[in-house]
Amino acid sequence: MSSSVHADAFYREVIASGELFAVEHEEDGPLEWHLAGGTHARPFWSSRSRAVRMLDGPLRRRGLVIVPHTWHEFCSTIAPGMRSAGQLVGLNWHGSRARGYNLGPETVMQTVESLRAVG
């Protein structure tokens, strides 16, 4: 499936469940990936099973855990910190290289809220 299909699923599933899932270091907290051009991203998945697939595959490393977050927590705490740090949100990274769309936190929040409004 394409990254756009995974991004669409991200929005639909987050709206339906009110949750999203991060993969974090058990001891050190959030993971950050260095992308081309000096940007950084933190990946989030719209279901625990999507995150598990990544931990069982390309993100398999000792000491990583799946951490659930509510949509409210993401908007009120996580996204502002990411915005300040200049980080992008990785949407449902997938595949053998764990890749997908990376968008600004504001864009992700606006998209979820606008899709929720048209419901």
Please give a handful of descriptors for the protein shown.
119 residues; alpha+beta; Trna Endonuclease, Chain: A, domain 1; seven-stranded mixed beta sheet; 7 strands
Question: Topology of this structure?
Answer:
Blueprint: H1 3-17, E1 19-25, E2 29-30, E3 33-34, E4 40-45, H2 48-56, E5 64-70, H3 71-85, E6 87-91, E7 102-103, H4 105-118
Parallel strand pairs: 4-6
Antiparallel strand pairs: 1-2, 1-4, 1-5, 3-4, 6-7
Whole-number count of domains: 1
Specify the CATH homologous superfamily: Uncharacterised protein PF11572, DUF3234
- Helix and strand element order: HEEEEHEHEEH
Please identify the oligomeric state.
Answer: single chain
Biggest sheet details: 7 strands, mixed
Q: What is the overall pLDDT average?
A: 93
Description:
The protein has a single domain (3-118), classed as 3-Layer(aba) Sandwich (Trna Endonuclease, Chain: A, domain 1). The chain is globular. With 119 residues, the chain is of the alpha+beta class. Helix 1 crosses helix 4. It starts with a helix and ends with a helix. The mean pLDDT is 93. Strands 1, 2, 3, 4, 5, 6 and 7 form a seven-stranded mixed beta sheet that branches. Helices cover 45% and strands 26% of the residues. The chain is built from four helices and seven strands; from the N terminus they run H-E-E-E-E-H-E-H-E-E-H.
Please sum up the structure shown:
The protein is of the alpha+beta class and 119 residues long. It has helices at residues 3-17, 48-56, 71-85, 105-118, and strands at 19-25, 29-30, 33-34, 40-45, 64-70, 87-91, 102-103.
